[in-house]
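Please fill in the sequence for the structure shown.

STRUCTURE ENCODING:
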């Protein structure tokens, strides 16, 4: 079976995990700090705050920058549902907006109580304002362009720690707020002088085991970027109309009959993942005064709802891509 996503965790990751365990400081210790510093170096920013997931990173960043209650956040209708859930967890209200012809949130008006959350899907960059929070969970290593960018470290990402995520920013005060939210506003529970309950927070801490895996993966970052680029280029050469991307984490194809194509590929021993449904199809994201949305209110998002993620990932074999292309062209 050719998997839809292929990545490796090898001996360097194992050695790093063992070293973190032997150091007997597993929860957010020196290895996490080193990982944050390396990520900051790659992105060209002074501050990175690691946390439990990309969703948590978005929630934390929104809480650190927004007043929350009463605010509206404009979210593209085409994104993974976690983008909207992060807005809701931060106490704000989701306002859905159709995407442009590239499948991204277009330039929209920024108002006092209406914020914008650009989503950089599959390495393609949406319009970003100077104070925006970016959902860059699928766009590493693109650096933040607004106030901050949030990234995912889940398994199907360029750099993976199993689960995890991080916030990257150039704003020192914002970074301090994120760190405060991450650990109940307690930098070090062993120092009595700082145990003053200044503000509320959460337990959004990272672990040194995850950081050790991430450091090992970062050592192979350039190889991984080269590999995903080679896979994408091979699909193109073989005549598979995958969507363009400067950093093609996934290989996406629009198709009018995605389920029939997926069944055909599966019969040839090939996995393919269906596209996410548009967010407006989630009943809890509809405004209270509407019983439902018409698909015609989100024509571009609907266009991007029919398609598949073809086999991708930094360790997908090129020979397997040739098999996928042959099966695709055999589809009738």
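FILLED IN BY: designer on duty
SEQUENCE:
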């Amino acid at each position: 079976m050719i998997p839809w996503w292929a990545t490796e965790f090898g001996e360097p990751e194992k050695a790093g995990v063992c070293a973190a365990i032997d150091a007997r400081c597993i929860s957010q210790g020196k290895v996490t700090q080193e990982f944050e510093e390396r990520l900051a170096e790659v992105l060209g920013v002074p501050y990175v705050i690691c946390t439990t997931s990309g969703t948590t990173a978005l929630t934390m960043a929104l809480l650190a920058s927004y007043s929350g209650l009463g605010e509206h956040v404009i979210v593209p209708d085409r994104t993974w549902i976690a983008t909207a859930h992060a807005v809701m967890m931060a106490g704000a209200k989701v306002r859905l907006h159709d995407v442009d012809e590239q499948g991204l949130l277009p330039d929209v008006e920024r108002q006092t109580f209406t914020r914008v959350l650009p989503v950089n899907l599959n390495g393609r960059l949406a319009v970003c304002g100077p104070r925006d929070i970016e959902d860059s969970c699928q766009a590493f290593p693109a650096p933040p362009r607004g106030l901050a960018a949030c990234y995912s470290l889940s398994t199907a990402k360029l750099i993976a720690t199993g689960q995890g995520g991080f916030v990257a920013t150039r704003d020192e005060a914002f970074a301090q707020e994120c760190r405060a939210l991450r650990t109940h506003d307690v930098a070090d529970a062993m120092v009595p002088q700082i145990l003053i309950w200044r503000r509320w927070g959460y337990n959004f801490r990272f672990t040194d085991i995850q950081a050790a895996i991430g450091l090992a993966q970062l050592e192979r970052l350039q190889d991984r970027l080269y590999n995903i680029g080679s896979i994408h280029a091979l699909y193109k050469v073989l005549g598979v109309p995958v969507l363009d991307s400067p950093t093609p984490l996934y290989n996406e194809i629009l198709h009018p009959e995605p389920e029939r194509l997926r069944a055909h590929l599966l019969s040839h021993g090939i996995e393919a993942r269906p596209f996410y449904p548009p967010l407006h199809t989630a009943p809890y994201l509809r405004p209270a005064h509407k019983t439902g949305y018409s698909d015609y209110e989100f024509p571009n998002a609907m266009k991007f709802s029919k398609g598949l993620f073809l086999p991708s990932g930094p360790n997908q074999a090129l020979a397997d891509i040739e098999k996928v292309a042959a099966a695709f062209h055999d589809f009738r």
